[in-house]
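Input sequence (231 aa), recorded before submission:
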Amino acid sequence: MRKLLFFSVTSISVIFILFNSSIVEKVSSRFNKTIYDIKINNIENLQEDYILSNLRIKKGDSFWTFNSRKLKNDLKEIKEVENFFFNLNSTGLLEISIEERKPHMVWIKSDRLYYLDENGNILNFSKYSFSNLTEIRGSVEKKKLKEFNKAAKKYDFLSKKVSKIFYSQNIGWKVYLFDRKCLFLPEKEIDKVLGIFNKIMDSEIYNKYNYFDMRILGRIYLNNESKCLSF
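Predicted structure, token format:
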């Protein structure tokens, strides 16, 4: 009887230890849960490694210390990203869907192409699937280009008619239009000058001439020849 009782107690103890060990393993496994993979979706012109290198959250980080605000801030800092959505599922897979920013223009320098946003920032695209972008040549000063784009945004004709632009420091902007007309703009007061040119486009003057030099405020030099051909 004593042997039977001892065997029963021993068996219960073994079962309890095994059950307790299983609980400890499960609890330990839950606490050691990690982000086992980070997947970037919907990218066309960006490299996945470029996105991942700009994120502070890394593969193998703790699942429980995941900081969504930190990830949002990191994604907002990537200038090539227009919008995003992310989800961390219960298995530890972090999926990030990206909407890429469309470049505003393409800068051609020494036979190389650099895609720029409205503020003149170079967008780090590794693939190129863009068309109908305004070309810019010459030097690019971010502050000047930002001012130009801000003023040009008010007038639809610039987004529809401009083919190429060329910037010369201390001289101004040379704008080549799709209808082969040429417009010279000053560095300063671009908004005011574009407003005047917008009115000219609705007049017979625009149809009569091909060259409009408005770099000197208050004056317009007109010519029938297009002098924008030498870009």
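Checked by second reader. Residues 2-7, 21-28 have pLDDT under 50 and may be disordered.
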